[in-house]
Design the sequence.
């Protein structure tokens, strides 16, 4: 397969201007350029690359981050597609809730519950059931005993502040020195205030942050959209996974 830029643009549903921009960024370069005419040509590999870019764009990844991911030496397309599917399913579920809320609002019903963040208490019950017999949860209960609502709120704000700082650098590499220092700070914060956070537990937390919509929503609220995913990747790198 060999297509000129206009054909490729029509086939993929993006504009010629966008393809020029992707070329400038080094995100998607033509398969080759005819030296005599200057025409850009694209092939099957170009199509696969564009497919990957479009999946990431659907998940609102910044172009700079997409380039870094696709250029990574440990990039595994099968694993990436699995992660993309999981994130798209989460996005779909969230949109379905909002659509239902809009339909209810059109009927004059109160739909504020659709935007309610109070499910954190429900998560605590789930965590207790899941971790109740673990040393980590027992330590968590011991350290939490006797804390006032104000103290709990201050600690929660302290953790969210770490995620806010992650949000400020989310356009950089999750493996950067600054990102890794913030992950270390997060780990130490959990150890100091909740329970002994091993690398294994920390890695599981990172996976949970993106898999559980409640955490994803709150962390993204603190640092901006994409912060949760950035934090999870930074944690994964810190834990050597």
Sequence:
């Amino acid at each position: 397969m060999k297509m000129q830029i206009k054909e490729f643009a029509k086939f993929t549903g993006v504009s010629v201007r966008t393809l020029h921009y992707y070329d400038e960024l080094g995100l998607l370069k033509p398969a080759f350029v005819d030296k005599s005419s200057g025409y850009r040509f694209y092939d099957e590999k170009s199509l696969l690359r564009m497919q990957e870019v479009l999946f990431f764009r659907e998940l609102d990844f910044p172009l700079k981050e997409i380039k870094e991911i696709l250029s990574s030496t440990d990039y595994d397309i099968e694993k990436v597609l699995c992660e993309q599917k999981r994130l798209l399913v989460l996005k779909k579920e969230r949109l379905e809730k909002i659509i239902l809320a809009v339909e209810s609002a059109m009927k004059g019903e109160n739909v504020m519950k659709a935007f309610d963040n109070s499910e954190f208490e429900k998560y605590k019950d789930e965590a207790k059931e899941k971790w109740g017999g673990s040393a980590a949860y027992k330590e968590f209960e011991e350290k939490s005993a006797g804390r006032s609502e104000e103290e709990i709120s201050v600690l929660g704000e302290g953790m969210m502040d770490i995620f806010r700082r992650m949000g400020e650098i989310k356009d950089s590499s999750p493996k950067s020195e600054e990102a890794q220092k913030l992950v270390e700070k997060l780990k130490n914060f959990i150890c100091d205030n909740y329970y002994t956070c091993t690398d294994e537990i920390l890695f599981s937390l990172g996976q949970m942050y993106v898999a559980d919509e409640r955490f994803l929503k709150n962390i993204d609220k603190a640092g901006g959209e994409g912060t949760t995913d950035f934090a999870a990747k930074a944690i994964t790198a810190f834990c050597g996974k």
